[in-house]
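note to self — DONT lose this again. spent like an hour looking for the file last time. sequence + predicted structure for the chain T wanted, 44 res
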Amino acid sequence: MAEHKHGTMDITVQRQAYDGFITAIVRCSIAALATLVFLAVFAI
């Protein structure tokens, strides 16, 4: 069995996926808030 040294694994792909996920969540949250504000201002 190969020896594992902590901190030696290449995690660039996982980091990119995480960053993309966070970016998508932030953008969706902003879009949802903008939609709610739009509806609150113009729908009533």
